[in-house]
Amino acid sequence: MIDITTATPNAATITPKRRFKWNVALDHLVLIVGSLFMILPVLLAFTTASHDAVTIHREGLQLKMGDQLGVNFQKAMFEKGGFTDTVDGMRMLTNSFILGIGFAVGKIIIGMMAAYAIVYFRLRFASFAFWIIFTTLLLPLEVRILPSYEVIQGLGLTNTYTGLIVPLIASATATFFFRQFFRSVPEELVEASRIDGAGPVKFFIDILVPLSRTMIAAMFIIMFVFGWNQYLWPTLITTEESFFTLVRGIKQIVISYTDAQIPEHGQALALAFVAIVPPVLVVIFFQSWFVKGLTESDK
Amino acid sequence: MAKVTLDGIRKVYPNGFEAVKPSSFDIPDGEFVVLVGPSGCGKSTLLRMIAGLEDISEGALSIGDRVVNDVDPADRNIAMVFQNYALYPHMTVAKNMGYGLKNRGVSKAEIERKVAEAAEMLDLSALLDRRPSQLSGGQRQRVAMGRAIVRNPDLFLFDEPLSNLDAKLRNQMRIEIRALQRRLGVTAIYVTHDQVEAMTMADRIIVLNGGVIEQIGTPTEIYENPASTFVAGFMGAPPMNLLKAKVNGAGTAEVTEGLSFPAPAGASGDVLVGIRPEDLEIAEDGDMQMEVKIVEELGANRLLHGDLGGQEFSVSVPKQQEVTEGQIALRIKSGEPHVFDANSGRRL
Ligand SMILES: Nc1ncnc2c1ncn2[C@@H]1O[C@H](COP(=O)(O)OP(=O)(O)OP(=O)(O)O)[C@@H](O)[C@H]1O
Ligand SMILES: [Mg+2]
């Protein structure tokens, strides 16, 4: 005891003075530059969206705030536009949500169930099946887009949400991640729940799904953003404007005018800004949930 | 509560490995049986077959009067405590304990009552709303026990439940588990590789080695009359001394010139003479001359390691006894030396 108390003041006097840490400053510099690089275009889109079409057309991107912000947002979101005058920004926002959420939820459900079958049941060709599923990772929708289109059209699913969402779901990413996760769940938990009288369905719903919370959150972030940003497939499969998503709508605003008119860049940028917000919110919301789950470390 | 009968139970894993050779034994109602043996000897395999987590390759298993070979684990009315507790991490203590009842359609009020009762018994009442991650190792162990007892099972199965606890807590839990089992009167099978646990807890011990039952008996029987050199060496700390000897014409087992022990009738050829270190004492007129090389202090007693008749030997002496390295004379304090066949290892 005595040793410790006398040692403390000595240790304090030995501690060197705080020096300026160059490496820390450098770290911050890199981070700040990186952040600016990411944020500035968004900021520029926002400020430019506050000007009228004529100004933007004549003077290009604007750094200062203008006075047309409210008008541009109002028109972009609530004024029906497009060739057929049937779709407004709100409709597109809804469609984007349907696509993003439908895609993410569908993918998580299918992925979890497939992984559950592969990991927990003695299937005859389980690992073969898994590798077949796995190879679909090498075949994203863009590669198989023509046959997929053929099938969807053959089924009469063009211009439906089903046709929009289902073909996108068919890939192995979620299955793969859930498989890896399920394999890390201790075997004893399965056995304990068997003795506790939980059948396969109960085990899945009562034990495995709650244990996968953080995994589900992570998957939801990735899949929602991926679905939200889809462009090629929706362009191909939906021709009716009432199925347009925001990502498509932005382009529509710019091109849907006769030559004599100036493209409504302000509105397009307003819409682009609206399109950015939900993915950001999803990431922020699920991120905190996700980190909380990780640090609770109850597995 | 039920008796358990194993009749020629055998386990061959799909890869062809025979983990448990055909084994038979009965466990009467309410008995606490400990399965003990070195790592990999098939203890867990045997226990898991009784639980229904592993298929039985051959033989018949009955719990109560029912053959349960093909009965689902959930319907065998057993409860199991796992080595790593296997608590559901996302459920509170109360939910963990009540989950088995919930799956059996017991009413909410009834579950609550039983959980409260078990929690009371295990001193967990204050912790019912916590998650397993917020508990200490000993508390988790108790929750696992609680989960087992709320269901009023016919049979408790334990697979090395204390091996993750520190020594002090282990001693305490050992006593608690034993007391709880007595109080509830439930038949229990307890797997461990710790011979102290086996000796202190068991009504009867089953010693397994390489998938074969070496001996079944009460702790005293196992200690006093080990059936083989394996049991003799495995049960008891420090292990029994085993001296190589030859049975001579006079019917005694001779280790070296001038050092021989009585051999049972019918013994012949090469034998091993077993003497427990604690069955010896230092005596001026002792006829066994030992050369002490190392003295090990154990607190209550000392362990002397050295050499007797050219073979390794140890003796345990009380702490009052002054000892130095060098030559000492020994004599057998109590009991007869055990004599085993050198080839088969069986007791003669
Ligand atoms: N699934 C399996 N397939 C093939 N062999 C197995 C399998 N599980 C266990 N074994 C083998 O069976 C033998 C007995 O295993 P078991 O788990 O019953 O040992 P144990 O006595 O419980 O050991 P420990 O004290 O280390 O837990 C071991 O040799 C092990 O390698
Ligand atoms: Mg084991």
TrEMBL record, chain A:
Predominant location: membrane
Top-rank lineage group of the source organism: Bacteria
Localization terms from the record: Cell inner membrane; Cell membrane
Transmembrane parts of this sequence: 24-46, 97-121, 128-149, 161-182, 203-226, 268-291
Entry keywords, A to Z: Cell inner membrane, Cell membrane, Membrane, Transmembrane, Transmembrane helix, Transport
An annotated GO cellular component: plasma membrane
Keyword Membrane in record: yes
One Pfam family matching this protein: BPD_transp_1
Membrane-related topology note: Multi-pass membrane protein
Span of domain ABC transmembrane type-1: 93-286
GO biological process per UniProt: transmembrane transport
Subunit composition and interactions: The complex is composed of two ATP-binding proteins (UgpC), two transmembrane proteins (UgpA and UgpE) and a solute-binding protein (UgpB).
Family statement drawn from the similarity comment of this UniProt entry: Belongs to the binding-protein-dependent transport system permease family.
Function statement: Part of the ABC transporter complex UgpBAEC involved in sn-glycerol-3-phosphate (G3P) import. Probably responsible for the translocation of the substrate across the membrane.
The name this protein goes by in its record: sn-glycerol-3-phosphate transport system permease protein UgpE
TrEMBL record, chain B:
Keyword Nucleotide-binding attributed: yes
Domain annotation ABC transporter: ranges: 4-235
GO MF annotation terms: ABC-type transporter activity; ATP binding; ATP hydrolysis activity
E.C. number: 3.6.3.20
PROSITE patterns: ABC_TRANSPORTER_1 (PS00211), ABC_TRANSPORTER_2 (PS50893)
Keywords tagged on the record: ATP-binding, Cell inner membrane, Cell membrane, Hydrolase, Membrane, Nucleotide-binding, Sugar transport, Translocase, Transport
EC class of the enzyme, as a word: hydrolase
GO cellular component, one term: ATP-binding cassette (ABC) transporter complex, substrate-binding subunit-containing
One GO BP annotation of this record: glycerophosphodiester transmembrane transport
Statement: the UniProt record of this protein carries the keyword 4Fe-4S: no
Protein family membership: Belongs to the ABC transporter superfamily.
Descriptive protein name: sn-glycerol-3-phosphate import ATP-binding protein UgpC
Naturally occurring in which organism (per UniProt): Thalassovita autumnalis
